[in-house]
């Protein structure tokens, strides 16, 4: 029996819905309204920390980027178990198509390499349970052997690392980070705009200093950021 071919899927509408209104420098929305608890503020913890050594990663799709300390590069965390975050991987694939030259490395948070590798079986298939027309992964994907990359990032930014964290490094230094979830997508934040600016060599959007914290806020933030978690909207089992 001949192998079944992947059906042609028109992703035009999906791409338009996933990305910011415009990534053209002349039309970037630098004044986008973002809730305070979703903003990346100036002097966030980990700012200017070094890009982790990516040579320890075991790539299961694609290859390690050349010269990761030159120009912009994005590290995006993911996991097979976090089905609610598959959409983030698809949206970053769309972002790569909209911004040619943007390098994205997907780093798995899965506990075992076989779990991460199993993700490849889902490529180019629809996932209606998450309203995904087609699971496309344009970025390189890697298993974090020994969790060395995770440990390096956590050592710099604090908390711990969950699927859906995106970190933008420019010339080897961390300049921006955002956490995406099933309820907070790429188009909602400022990450896409920052990538467009970084590729053009332009200054990034600055959100200023964070508002004064009330007593107890810091503990609440750590509770949200800390600990590897399964997205509550991820669902259980294979789809």
Count up the helices: 6
Task: Spell out the helices and strands N to C.
Answer: HEEHEHEHEEHH
Q: Write down how many β-strands occur, each being a DSSP E stretch of 2 or more residues.
A: 6
Report on the biggest sheet: 6 strands, mixed
Rg, nearest Å? 17 Å
Structural class: alpha/beta
Secondary structure: helix percent:
10-25%
What does the average pLDDT come to? 88
Largest sheet strand order: 1-4-3-2-5-6
Separation, N- and C-terminal Cα atoms: 25 Å
Describe this structure in words.
This protein is of the alpha/beta class and 239 residues long. The protein is 23% helix and 14% strand. The chain has a six-stranded mixed sheet with strand order 1-4-3-2-5-6.
Blueprint of the fold:
Elements: H1 12-18, E1 58-61, E2 72-78, H2 86-98, E3 104-108, H3 113-118, E4 140-143, H4 148-157, E5 165-170, E6 173-179, H5 191-200, H6 217-225
Parallel strand pairs: 2-3, 3-4
Antiparallel strand pairs: 1-4, 2-5, 5-6
In short:
By secondary structure, this protein is an alpha/beta fold. The protein has helices at residues 12-18, 86-98, 113-118, 148-157, 191-200, 217-225; strands at residues 58-61, 72-78, 104-108, 140-143, 165-170, 173-179.
């Amino acid at each position: 029996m001949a192998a079944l071919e992947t059906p042609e899927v028109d992703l035009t509408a999906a791409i338009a819905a996933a990305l910011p209104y415009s990534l053209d420098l002349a039309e970037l929305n630098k004044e986008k309204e973002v809730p305070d608890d979703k903003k990346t503020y100036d002097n966030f913890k980990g700012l200017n920390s070094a890009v982790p050594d990516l040579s320890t990663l075991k790539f299961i799709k694609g290859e390690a980027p050349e010269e990761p300390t030159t120009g912009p590069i994005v590290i995006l965390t993911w996991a097979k178990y976090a089905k609610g975050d598959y959409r983030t991987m698809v949206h970053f694939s769309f972002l790569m198509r909209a911004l040619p030259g943007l390098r994205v490395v997907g780093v798995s948070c899965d506990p075992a390499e076989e779990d991460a590798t199993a993700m490849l079986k889902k490529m180019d298939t629809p996932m209606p349970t998450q309203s995904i027309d087609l699971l496309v992964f344009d970025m390189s994907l890697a298993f974090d052997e020994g969790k060395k990359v995770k440990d390096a990032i956590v050592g710099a930014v604090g908390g711990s690392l969950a699927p859906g964290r995106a970190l933008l490094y420019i010339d080897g230094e961390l300049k921006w980070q955002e956490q995406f979830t099933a309820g907070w997508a790429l188009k909602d934040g400022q990450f896409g705009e920052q990538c467009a600016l970084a590729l053009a060599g332009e200054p990034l959007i600055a959100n200023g200093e964070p508002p004064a914290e009330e007593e107890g806020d810091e503990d609440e933030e750590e509770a949200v950021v800390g600990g590897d978690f399964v997205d509550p909207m991820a669902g259980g089992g294979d789809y």
